[in-house]
Amino acid sequence: MLAAAGYFLPKLEGCSPATYAVFKTDIVDKKITIPLAMFATSPIQFVRPKGWYYDIAVQKRDENNYTALLLQCTHQENQLIPAGNNGYSCSLHGSQFDVNGIVRKGPAEKRLEQYTTKIQDNNLVIEILKTP
Ligand code: FES
After folding, report:
1. CB count in 10 Å sphere of residue 103
2. Which CATH superfamily is domain 2-127 in?
């Protein structure tokens, strides 16, 4: 099923700034659909719609609660990188965001874009109503 929905990029592949596994997939009808089974190995997964520069961090909070944050710095749109359990950081000017996308350190002032998620069958559906 994973092969049908997308594929994983190996670490450090291509020109992506990502140093973690990224699940590439398509947006269909303004939605990304990923199998819930992806979260069996880790509560956080990174997804990148084909053609996007930015990843979406999808985190399992509990069985029925998932969040999806766009890893685009709200200061000057740099791709963010995960900072362990401390959220996400920006290598350009040092902004930091917590795991909920709230600014912990500027110069960024706005929280990260968060997408609505819902569980449908054995999948997580992320609604992409706004593209970066
Ligand atoms: S672009 Fe991220 S802190 Fe400036």
Report:
1. 18
2. Rieske [2Fe-2S] iron-sulphur domain (2.102.10.10)
